[in-house]
Amino acid sequence: MQSASSFDVVVIGAGAAGLFCAGIAGQRGLRVLLIDHAEKVAEKIRISGGGRCNFTNRETGPAHFLSENPAFCRSALARYTPRDFIALVQHHRIAWHEKHKGQLFCDESSEDIIALLLRECEAGAVTRWQPCRVEAVQQAGRGFELDTDRGAVRAGRVVVATGGLSIPKIGASDFGYRLARQFGHRVVEPRPALVPLSFDAAAWAPFAALAGLSLEVTVSTGRGKGAGRFVEDLLFTHRGLSGPAVLQISSYWQAGTPIELDLAPGQNLAASLLEAKMHSRRQLGNELATRLPARLAEAWCAPLGDLTTRAMPEVRDKDLTTLAASLQHWTLEPAGTEGFRKAEVTAGGVDTRELSSQTMESRRVPGLHFIGEVVDVTGWLGGYNFQWAWASAHACAQACAKAATMPDVAVVPAAHPQAL
Ligand code: FDA
User: Fold this and answer.
1) Nearest atom (ligand 1) to Cα of 371
2) Distance from CA of residue 185 to its chain's centroid?
3) Where along the chain do the CATH 3.50.50.60 domains lie?
4) For 87-136, how does the pLDDT look when each residue is reduced to its tens digit (9 = 90+)?
5) Residue nearest ligand 1's atom 29 by CA
6) pLDDT digits over 147-195, tens only?
7) Ligand 1: residues within 6 Å at CB?
8) In this predicted model, what pLDDT tens digit does every residue of 336-367 receive, in sequence order?
9) Please, what is the average pLDDT of the chain?
């Protein structure tokens, strides 16, 4: 019988977090095995940012993340910042640019970030098994034993970096959640986030003519701690609303609740229309079109009939304020989301209250770590999710390296093997 291969650390999942963690741990002198079940490495990085990978956001801070435990991400983000990752990108001579609101993209291609991560792994002499299936993970003595389709592996530490459920066709799986539950961890119910919202076809019909129109709006939903509010671009489509505004708000949206849009952010439409009534001889529709994109003004006036062609001084104050409110407090209830098939990320995940925010290590099972998107930390749109992947991977790799220099104290009782 072939004996088990032995490593200091096995990282499961060769995506953003797994590759980064493996590279750092390897460069710190640990023997690292990186396993992924997909044919191609880091497919999600490849398709990210429209093929140019929005690899970080200069402004990253804890406020840009959702979690049941919002303070959890603070420590890792503070110890590995966007500046650190930018320095690495520059060290690898990758050209980049800032697009919008602190979002940094590759000038050429996402492939540059994948190549960076692979070079970092190479520098750390990381062994990569891909494609490779992990069939079972169990505690064994002071570490773990894994059954894989390339044979058994022993490791002092296991890092779970298998991401969330978004885009199953490129390798997403619930492996990380199943493993967490196997070891007694709670998982915050995963749900699609940064995802297009869907709308009832009949209710949408009056707005279908606006397809293709894009404008900056304020979008909000929810109350209290769960409330979200963004000023972002909105895109009207044949079937509903899309664009960054909708993706952002989708992470905060709860089924059965409305979202509210202000289609004229920064304006006080009611006051300005009432003021215009005093001196403008324009028709209402034309007056509105001086404050909004003409197509939007037209669509909003369509149901008003004759009122639209009435001269401003003849329009009642009440009609002006009602019209203004319908544009600045446009409330609509999405029917649902387009699901994990279209979601950029998965909100929810391994409950952070059972993980160390310093090391990403399980408080239940010494030596077991969770990093990246599998954890209940979900970033806004704009490079925050990759920054979380880098920061959580860095915290974990540092901890693995540090632990390797400490005398072994804990003896972990062996648990029964469980198939995954
Ligand atoms: P990631 O998903 O990257 O990696 C997980 C890895 O685990 C995969 O390689 C998978 O094959 C592997 N795996 C899963 N199950 C396994 C199993 N059972 N056994 C072995 N391996 C397994 N973010 C951002 O900040 N900027 C951006 O521009 C974008 N753009 C973007 C576009 C699109 C279309 C999507 C879908 C997502 C984004 N994101 C993004 C989000 C970003 O891609 C995501 O948050 C990170 O890739 C998460 O990194 P992880 O390493 O945690 O998971």
Assistant:
1) 52
2) 22
3) 5-191+345-419
4) 999 999 999 999 989 999 999 999 999 999 999 999 999 999 999 999 99
5) 48
6) 999 999 999 999 999 999 999 999 899 999 999 999 999 999 999 999 9
7) 12-18, 35-38, 44, 47-49, 53-54, 134, 161-163, 166-167, 171, 173, 175, 344-345, 372-374, 383-386, 389
8) 999 999 999 999 999 999 999 999 999 999 99
9) 94
Q: Atom 21 (ligand 1): residue with closest C-alpha?
A: 36
CB atoms within 10 A of CB 255: 10
pLDDT tens per residue, range 26-51: 999 999 999 999 999 999 999 999 99
pTM of the model: 0.94
Best mutation site among 344, 369, 381 for ligand 1, i.e. most ligand atoms within 8 A of its Cβ? 344
Cα 231 to middle of ligand 1, angstroms:
26
Please report the atom of ligand 1 found closest to the CA of residue 420: 18
Q: Which fold has domain 5-191+345-419?
A: FAD/NAD(P)-binding domain (3.50.50)
Q: Does domain 193-265+331-337 have CATH number 2.40.30.10?
A: yes
Residue 10's nearest CA partner among 1, 25, 37 is 25
Inter-axis angle of helices 111-123 and 82-91, nearest 10: 90
Q: Where in the chain is the domain with CATH 2.40.30.10?
A: 193-265+331-337
Angle, alpha carbons 156-158-164 (nearest 5°): 175
Q: The tokens of 349 are what?
A: 């995940």
Please identify, by atom number, the ligand 1 atom nearest to the C-alpha of residue 384: 25
